[in-house]
């Protein structure tokens, strides 16, 4: 950085300039206040120290000091004032308005050089600190901007998620409506062919949901059981009325024919988008825990859970209601038959759940009686 030396163009100024030049400093020597101001205005970054030598008027000195101090770009450039006014100048006042250092004539050349050199060093360090501070401020600013943008993005994301949530809910609702109407269409087909009333389907559905919920299975599973249990006998549309509506017991042949409702039902929906659970209920609701059921002779936990649940619900309802081939059994007799089927026909764990919640079972039964 350069030394801006302002003096009256006399011999003393030359001496000062030579002292600095012969060492290692670059000097810009100015004799007019306005020229000095021009340099300070146009190339402030080149100047590392300003030396004011007496000779120009005291007012010019003060004017220059104020000019340096009043600009953001020069206010910290150190000013060294060389006092040649003797008693006229109040040094304290000069230091007060921001002069960095002063020298009184006569002075030692070496000390003069060191004072100038130190002032430049001081200013260079000051500028480094200032640059670092600016960088930190800029980083903070960027950081704040990034935080602001992240907040904005989060807000937008939340809004988007909200909209997506609405769409998903609407879609799910629509899908459920479609599924429900499909199921009720299938149920209606079933009603024409079965001796059962629609209430059988509703009760089986509610018993099955109750068992699933009380067994602690998740809500979605219980909801699906409730939704698809009504489909368990849809295959009966494929069984002739002679068999379906036959009073009294089936012959072995007739029973074999009746058993087909399971596979007929399964074939009806196997290629549909209905969930696996619905297909399992239809295909396996006549399997028995000990493997003696139909159609696949599955045993224990080989039988899908939903089918094991529906089996209990379906048999309980068949026992406690009137059919063309039998009167309704008393509750005690029906419960005894279920209990006898523990580990044979029914999953013992699920049967326990059913008995533990018999009060709720009976409430469902009462609320959904056949007309
Ligand atoms: Fe069935
Ligand atoms: Fe049934």
UniProtKB/TrEMBL annotation:
Keyword Coiled coil assigned: yes
GO-annotated biological processes: phosphorelay signal transduction system
Annotated ranges, domain Response regulatory: 2-120
Ranges where the HD-GYP domain occurs: 175-370
Keyword line: Coiled coil, Phosphoprotein
Residue ranges that the Swiss-Prot or TrEMBL entry lists as coiled coil: 126-163
Official protein name in the record: Two-component system response regulator
């Amino acid at each position: 950085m350069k030394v801006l030396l302002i003096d009256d163009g006399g011999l003393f100024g030359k001496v000062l300039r030579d002292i600095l030049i012969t060492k290692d400093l670059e000097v810009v020597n100015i004799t007019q206040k306005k020229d000095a101001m021009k340099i300070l205005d146009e190339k402030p970054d080149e100047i590392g120290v300003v030396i004011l030598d007496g000779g120009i008027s005291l007012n010019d000195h003060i004017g220059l000091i104020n000019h340096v101090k009043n600009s953001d770009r020069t206010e910290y450039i150190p000013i060294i004032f060389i006092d040649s006014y003797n008693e006229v100048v109040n040094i304290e006042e000069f230091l007060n308005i921001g002069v960095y250092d002063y020298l009184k004539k006569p002075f030692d050349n070496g000390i003069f050089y060191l004072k100038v050199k130190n002032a430049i060093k001081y200013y260079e360090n000051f500028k480094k600190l200032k640059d670092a501070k600016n960088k930190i401020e800029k980083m903070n600013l960027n950081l704040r901007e990034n935080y602001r943008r992240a907040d904005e993005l989060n807000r937008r994301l939340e809004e988007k998620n909200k909209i997506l949530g609405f769409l998903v809910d609407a879609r799910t609702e629509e899908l459920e409506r479609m599924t429900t109407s499909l199921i009720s269409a299938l149920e209606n087909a079933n009603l024409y062919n079965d001796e059962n009333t629609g209430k059988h389907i509703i009760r089986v559905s509610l018993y099955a949901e109750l068992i699933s919920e009380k067994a602690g299975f998740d809500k979605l599973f219980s909801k699906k059981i409730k939704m698809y249990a009504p489909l368990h006998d849809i295959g009966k549309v494929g069984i002739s009325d002679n068999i379906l509506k036959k009073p009294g017991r089936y012959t072995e042949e007739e029973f074999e024919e009746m058993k087909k409702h399971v596979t007929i039902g399964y074939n009806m929906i196997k290629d549909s988008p209905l969930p696996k659970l619905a297909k399992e209920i239809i295909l396996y609701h006549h399997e028995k825990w000990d493997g003696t059921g139909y159609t696949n002779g599955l045993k224990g936990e080989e039988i899908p859970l939903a089918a094991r649940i529906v089996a209990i619900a379906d048999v309980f309802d068949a026992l406690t209601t009137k059919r063309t081939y039998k009167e309704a059994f008393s509750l005690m007799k029906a419960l005894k038959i279920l209990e006898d089927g523990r580990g044979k026909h029914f999953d013992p764990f699920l049967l326990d759940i059913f008995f533990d919640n018999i009060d709720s079972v009976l409430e469902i039964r009462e609320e959904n009686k056949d007309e």
